[in-house]
Amino acid sequence: MTVNTALRDYLLTRRTVTAPFLSEPAPSPEHLEEMLTIACRVPDHGKLAPWRFIVYEGEARRMAGDRLYEIAKAKWPERGEEQLEIERKHFLPAPITIGVISTAVPHFKIPEFEQLLAAGNAAFNLCHAANALGYGAHWVTRWFAYDDQASAALGAQAGERFVAFVHIGTAQTRLDDRDRPDPEALTTYWHG
Ligand SMILES: Cc1cc2nc3c(=O)[nH]c(=O)nc-3n(C[C@H](O)[C@H](O)[C@H](O)COP(=O)(O)O)c2cc1C
User: Fold this and answer.
1) Are 161 and 100 in contact (CB under 8 A)?
2) CA separation (Å) from 35 to 55, 80, 164, 174?
3) Which architecture, in CATH terms, is 17-172?
4) With a 6 A CB cut-off, is 146 part of the ligand 1 pocket?
5) What share of the chain is helix, strand, coil (3-state, %, to 5)?
6) How confident is the model at residue 123 (pLDDT cuts 50, 70, 90)?
7) Is the shortest distance between the CB of 161 and ligand 1 below 6 Å?
8) Is 135:171 a contact under the CB 8 Å cutoff?
9) Backbone CA torsion sign across 115, 117, 123, 128
């Protein structure tokens, strides 16, 4: 058995870089294609590929923010302009964001729950792929992943839902680590 030390070290130290610290340069088209290829290489019961991706880049990021601003303004009229302006900036400053959508539907054999998990796998592999190619990544959902109108405005079809918006860009910093769960406290052995 050979230990893959590079992979092990990565898994032991991987860290999200939050969106405010992601900036240009954006991934090249080749890197983007490779990231999406890696994102698709995940455990997927039934090989259904029950996910799809929506890419927001360039001017589309600003347009997406404008749509969220309008929806938020109608939804929360009591909010002040300063608070609402935040909505315009969700897809900035990271140069690219990839929405990961679960396309799970009832299936005779594969529970929808498992299809949802497969989409989550794709989202996390996308984060790993970004890291592998030298970029930082931040998986967020925020309110708009749970709001039908906002999700539709961002490209979800009826019955679909976003499991992730993965912001990707060049990391401007490495964040301090956070406390990590103690695996021992989370593990028991089953004895019957
Ligand atoms: C399903 C899911 C949704 C998340 N949504 C958000 C979010 O909306 N905003 C946010 O700041 N972090 C969100 N996170 C957490 C970050 O992706 C990240 O895990 C966190 O910043 C901790 O960093 P770490 O990945 O280095 O542990 C979400 C994570 C998951 C798995």
Assistant:
1) no
2) 12, 39, 15, 21
3) 3-Layer(aba) Sandwich (3.40)
4) no
5) 45, 15, 40
6) very high
7) no
8) yes
9) negative
Strand partners, 4: none
Q: Is the CB of 174 under 6 A from ligand 1?
A: no
Q: Taking the complete model, does pTM exceed 0.90, yes or no?
A: yes
Mean pLDDT over residues 69-75, rounded?
98
**Both structure tokens of 124:** 């996390």
Percent of the chain scoring above 70 in pLDDT: 100
**Tokens representing residue 82 in the block:** 């300063």
Domain ranges of the chain: 17-172
Burial grade of 7 (CB within 10 A; 0-12, 13-18, 19 or more): exposed
Atom of ligand 1 nearest to the CA of 14: 26
Residue-level pLDDT at 56 = 98
Distance 139 CA to ligand 1 centre (A): 5
Residue nearest to atom 18 of ligand 1 (CA): 16
